């Protein structure tokens, strides 16, 4: 069974493609075109430098509304000894921008003269007087924009390779251009293939995969200055696929063939490339994204430019792999064809919030969220799964763990290639801790107030640890102290003793058991978890909900080993609900809203308070101000109340403010 | 004579517009539309949050090509004690992405099993064996992407106000969306007006002004997410202008009326706004850009939504003022209508390279070039003229000198709102010193090599001063030592004693007198400068060409007072040539290439060497490597040689390397 032909390192794969392109005469700007100079030229890349054809201004121009004159005639003018000039022979009215008469070498602004019709008679029309009177002399070229002040003919206005901005169009027009030489937009065909795929908009059934990689790839191509052409989905039919790929190659500069790039039973891409051209690379040692194919296709004899070779990228099917393949292979290719020089990402150094492992043989493209907490820039790794497209949506950047690196400890510095301006990271609120569904609502409202909420769900205790390490601005927490019945305070003493902390109540919420609609197994309470026919889905260690469960199991005398699925952990209420909804488990412990979201039945068991723990240094910071504002915002409180099982009467109440006393382990 | 109605501070002007918009119900998102989820949605701003409709995956999916099975069946499998599972009842082949059968809870990858047709017979088709043999157990949910791994139904996928990127489309599609709610693109009419204007492409005659502000403004509108509609040029005809503006208001969300916003004889804009609606502001205390008009127009009775008010911005005619008016007033308005939150520029702190003055009453928007020299970030002010659009083309950012500040000393820190990513500034080569036409060619070639050459023409001596102050990476210099006949070395001793410097020859070039075609005044040499009928145009103090002139005038016994125009200074060879070409002067001293560029006659007088002075710390820096590479580059040398009067035989020769000895003033 063929696995990948051969995984080769990324730089080798890139070099092979580069060489093949150069051999095929496709190593530089693909073609140029002479485009009209108008607003549609914005974003185009200049294939030739713009040199000034004419000067700007192209004549000596008045810089003011006033009167053109000979400066020599005004030399004697003094406040007490004015000089009068006759209109016509000695002075002439000019508007701003008007050319200076040949005989003039200066302009006096209209507000600096007395306009006269006779010796002491103010002019009826101040722009058409008989004479003007000045009480100060003018140096030569006063209030004149001399020819070439802005641009002198023949000078460089814009270099080749420059991406046109609106103001550039002004400078090019001012220097006498009516058109610009720009690189032609490379045309890229995007072909999705796979029998299991359905297009966006079609009804989704079990086993169907919604095809969106072609939309993402087409969006990337267009964003990077190309012109994408999306083909319809081709089912897994080798001959049909060959025909479509040939058509794509005949009509386009580049072919992106999505999925089928692996070595599975219906992975035809490599064979298609071999049939229609040359297979250069099958397998690149990057993660995610392994099964990348690079090749060069021939055009049909009947196609335009039949001798032209057309590069093809076999793009892996997993959405994160697909998008990253675009960034790694397609963007540099388009940049080269546009002559703009490859995109140079902005990089920052940031400290990892947790330990990561990485396969030693691969360049590992890890998606991270980046934010500043205090003085430190932190990188929190997102899901590593190639299928988790939300990891790219949420990512602030990519940290590449190079081949040879097998892992990094928490706190290690990594270089992050940013997707956002570094300044945007300064508006990021890092919430690490317990998961609650109202955090999504908070994120939406914060976005409207210029803040980005990034929440990592590590459980209540994990959040307190993150605060202690200085890795979060705030933590959601609902840790019950069984002795006192109080929430969180004792745990604060355990994790944050000596720190100045504000503990603010957020919501009261209901916890209970989530079971499938109709409660088919007749679950009534926690005692049912010990039943032999019951598969439970648990929350991770350190989660407040887990603490709650363990406390009550202990009270009921149920041991963990008696609960089937106790070791199956999820990190959020919604994930627990999803596990129940999909039949993976028979029940789980979670909040009402999660049950309702996935249309499950809910057996209410407890009420609990969920708080926000905020170190005082951040509580007083401008960054978090919108969080506090929202706690008082009627509309926001209304929206939270509308979620099932939530009560906002406590929201914003300060439970504790000030230094934290040490406490015993609860 | 009415000057501006009343210049008010910028924040007041903005507040007046904001209030008027809110009164008219135009303070928020203008309208929304339900757009198809495809690549054309990239760049659109979401008017509603995207919440997941379905989970992704929406079923338990195999993460590998392999066999679905019950993990419990594999519990006993060991390397020495394999377990066999029968296809059909105990195992089922699945491709990556296929749904797991209901009875299965794990997948074993195909490469981890032995596929058998009988007890010891490998399967003919490894995907359709009779049985599979495993030598290791699998935990539950191994190699399975459980339902909701990426997205759980109901969770927040994208917040409202978010600008759509390609990957966002993938996440929205994966979560069950086929369309997105996006803010409708605001339509902005751009109306150029003025009898002196001609459109791009028409033959240019003296007094004509090429109309390009409408192109710049339309480009800005489109870049900022609006949809610009450019109107043809309207001549200065009040009634016609009223009709056109009314039409624009009837059909659009915003009207940008360019020029005529001042108070000159044909400045109709304010009157047009008063006739068709309400004039809110006439004159804003910003520089450049003063005569800004803000108002609200009424629609005609017959128009769509006749009760709608339409804001109008009267945009000043000077190109820099026009573009900045776009940034200051139009961008925030479009952002508000799109619901995206105003653009937050990236700001850096940089030290001014020279003293600047500023009118106390205005917010002064000063264009600056920003670059890093050594450890310091420097801001070099560009031309302040409102007509100098190249100042915006060349600008890396804007430093606002707020009202009340009348000027700043060289070295003062200013905050710069950047137009570029701060990282791009690190690729900027600062060349301050003598002007030479080959620097444009160098700039073009450096651009192809990922460097941006920023050159400030302050003359040879000015360049050495800049190097001494640590404000440049290199300086062009051609300072003749009359005693030795050598170039530059003595001046280095004067300005840079004790510094490690590399002095590298760049070109030999020809200097001479530039005179109009045909040499109408019969100029033969420098002696003619003393003639009464001769108007000279000079270079600025500290320029090498000025040093050369002064030396030779002294030898000829000609005093400065005898030379008419001696005090008229220009900063570049091309500017001198332009002054001669335009008739402002009868002759000037400059290089051959400048004469040829503007088709002047040239009287050759001297040959001189033009060097690059480079502190050793920068000479060894990666930043300048392309400069040294180019000196050896055959194609580049050929291009320089092709310019008239240039000889590259010396290019790259190191004249001096190492510490500079102090020297007496030359």
TrEMBL record, chains A, B:
One of its GO terms (biological process) is Mo-molybdopterin cofactor biosynthetic process. Residues 189-336 form the MoaB/Mog domain. Its cofactor is Mg(2+). GO terms for cellular component: cytosol. GO terms for molecular function: metal ion binding; molybdopterin molybdotransferase activity. Its EC number is 2.10.1.1. The keyword Metal-binding applies. It is an enzyme of class 2 (transferase). Gene3D superfamilies: MoaB/Mog-like domain, MoeA, C-terminal, domain IV, Molybdopterin biosynthesis moea protein, domain 2, Molybdopterin biosynthesis moea protein, domain 3, Periplasmic binding protein-like II. InterPro entries: MoaB/Mog-like_dom_sf (IPR036425), MoaB/Mog_dom (IPR001453), MoeA-like (IPR038987), MoeA_C_domain_IV (IPR005111), MoeA_C_domain_IV_sf (IPR036688), MoeA_linker/N (IPR005110), MoeA_linker/N_sf (IPR036135), PBP_domain (IPR024370). Keywords: Magnesium, Metal-binding, Molybdenum, Molybdenum cofactor biosynthesis, Transferase. It catalyses: adenylyl-molybdopterin + molybdate = Mo-molybdopterin + AMP + H(+). Pathway: Cofactor biosynthesis; molybdopterin biosynthesis. Belongs to the MoeA family. Catalyzes the insertion of molybdate into adenylated molybdopterin with the concomitant release of AMP. PANTHER family: MOLYBDOPTERIN BIOSYNTHESIS PROTEIN, MOLYBDOPTERIN MOLYBDENUMTRANSFERASE. This is Molybdopterin molybdenumtransferase. It comes from Levilinea saccharolytica.
